[in-house]
Amino acid sequence: MADVTPSSVVSPGSTFDLGAFVGDLNVEDDLGSDDVSLEGLQQELEECKNDEVVANILSKGTKLRDYTKGVENDLRKVELDSIQDYIKESDNLVSLHDQIRDCDSILSHMETLLSGFQAEIGSISSDIKILQEKSMDMGLRLKNRKVAESKLAKFVEDIIVPPRMVDILVDGEVNEEYLRTLETLSKKLKFVEVDPMVKASKALKDVQPELEKLRQKAVSKVFDFIVQKLYALRKPKTNIQILQQNVLLKYKYVITFLKEHGKEIYNEVRAAYIDTMNKVLSAHFRAYIQALEKLQLDIATAEDLIGVETRSSGLFTRAREPLKNRSAVFALGDRINIIKGIEEPALIPHIAEASSLKYPYEVLFRSLQKLLMDTATSEYNFCEDFFGEENVFYEIFSGPFGVIDEHVNTILPNCYDAIGLMLMILIIRQHQLIMSRRRIPCLDSYLDKVNISLWPRFKMVFDMHLSSLRNANVRTLWEDDVHPHYVMRRYAEFTASLIHLNTEYGDGQLELNLERLRMAVDDLIIKLAKNFPKPKLQTVFLINNYDMTIAVLKEAGPEGGKIQMHFEELLKSNTTLFVEELLQEHFNDLIKFVKSRASEDSTSSNDKPITVAEVEPLVKDFASRWKAAIELMHKDVITSFSNFLCGMEILRAALTQLLLYYTRLSDCIKRIVGGSALNKDLVSISSIMYEIRKYSRTF
């Protein structure tokens, strides 16, 4: 701010001449100056076009020069007024000036102080930075020392051998504490073997001999301990599974330790366990098989075939089981229950023997396979858990597999029970599913092998039945009896059994073999029928056999399929044939006339039209004995057919056909000239219907 001197300030009481101070201002001289430039005037006029003041001036027509002069005078007046105001405030300005100067002096002193402070702060900041660097360096050193201390402490802990550890491993008993100490020793042994820095340390030279001694002592001690436990498995009547689960598995870390730090000793323990279990299980299965063989019920022999006659046994024929037991050769019966109870416990031989019970071989087979399956499952899980490898199981069970294979290979060549063989195939199939649900694969190859051995034997026995039908001696098999033949019953029961068993298994090859069997029995039954002297007896024989076969197939279930349909067609065709034969036997003339002449038109130009004389004997004959004939037909049907329902169905068909023939005869008489004369002899349809109802139970 500029200094204002006292001499230059006018006192308020004096008069100030503004005109003298600023001089005269000559506006006109300025306006008349030659330096006036009109450049940009047009643009300025355009910009001021919308200005209210300019527009007002232009609208009033005021001269610009006059207006300018007025503005200049106003400005001068305002300027003089502001100067006068400034003079009035001169004292305040002087005071303000002094205050500003004092403030300036104070601020200058403060600036000096702050400059000193700034220098000191800069020095302190430098010291703080140095301290911070030192602190970070100390922190890093501390961290490194802690890491080093931690590693060193871990190294010392991992490498030292505490006296307590030595005492336990050398003198302690093998128990849970011993196992924990053994685990600690294992960690120390791995530590000195794996870490290359440890191998280079001087401390290892002092500790390594001690660790090696402890390892050898521990290996020797646990070997003696585990072998002692394995010897307990050889004791008679030892529950192996309980010993495995409650004793051996508690010490499974011993096996892990030996596998890692005593491979040779581990192999010895492994071999000892395999040898022990192989012998123990083989002996158990051999004893079980011998006990089962005492319970076996012989179902079939090589002579028990479909096409072999029952009277072929002579004085020197081997004694067989009673017929009630041998009926299972062809019929399934209750033997199917073995599949329904597939997961029931295995037989206990001494209990069954004490009860004097005998069983078909498939029952014994299921018990043997069930025992094998459960034993194998338990042993496989134990080997996986205890040894950590499944090969131990297969080496152990090479013995039991051999014992069972030897037994099966002895039984199969002498097995002629096709139903039993098929049941055994289904048992193996069910056991495969059970093992699959258990997710235990150890018996897959064994069960496949057994299944492969069963099918060829079944096929051979089946072919023996087929050959017995194809090569059957019709002369020795034939019996003068129209009732179902025992060969046909055998076939029906045998086929129904296999169809029922194959429903679940679904073997297409078996279906083809059953079709071959059906063709063979078809040929045989027709050959047997031809031995009857009368066609009617032949037909009755075939109907009885077909009806019985269908009934047996239906009893076995709704799975008869194409075979059942085939016999139903044969039954239907032979029933039609029998009905015609039965009616011709009693109403031959009437049937011949109806078939040959009843369809002719009596009014046609035929050489020989139907006359009353030609029909009258037929009508009178029928009227005189139709009731007696029906009675004879009823007795004939009752005595001919063993199945009452089938006989009634056939009688119903015969009477229906008779009614049809007589109706056609009545219609023919109505068309004959003069036929009304026979009305008195005609039997009414209602009378015939009434009589028929007395005999036909199915109307």
Automatic annotation (TrEMBL):
It comes from the Eukaryota. GO terms for biological process: endocytic recycling; Golgi to vacuole transport; protein transport; retrograde transport, endosome to Golgi. GO terms for molecular function: syntaxin binding. It is found in: Golgi apparatus, trans-Golgi network. It holds the Pfam family Vps52_CC. One of its GO terms (cellular component) is GARP complex. Keywords: Golgi apparatus, Protein transport, Transport. Belongs to the VPS52 family. This is Vacuolar protein sorting-associated protein 52 A. The lineage of its organism: Eukaryota, Viridiplantae, Streptophyta, Embryophyta, Tracheophyta.
